[in-house]
From TrEMBL:
The lineage of its organism: Bacteria, Thermotogati, Deinococcota, Deinococci, Deinococcales. It comes from the Bacteria. This is GTPase. It comes from Deinococcus koreensis.
Amino acid sequence: MSSPPRLLFVYNADAGLLNGLKDIWHKVVSPETYPCSLCGVTYGPLGMKREWKEFVRGLGREVKFLHRDELRAQYGVQGVALPAVFEVQGQGKPALWLPAEEIDRARSLDDLIALVRRAQQAGRPERAA
């Protein structure tokens, strides 16, 4: 029996220490203009929120978090609005699972958790990225 497809949660931000520091500063100074709603609801000033970590652990599948530059480098995916969640089966190409417009509507961690639960229960159709 094969394992369930893994999920890639992709931030609308680039990787790296300097980028991370700029992101933290931006979220503190002007949170309403911060471009990554996924970061905005899942991270506090001290890192990833405990409730989100526990929720992700309980999804029953492998989950990986990437930045937009890592998505491009590892999977060759670009030109997709971010933040987004992709589903990957085996060595296949990532399929869009939750698009940016849905994630952007999540105004709180509870909203995001409810959105991911609904998507998981619905068994999202594959949409090639």
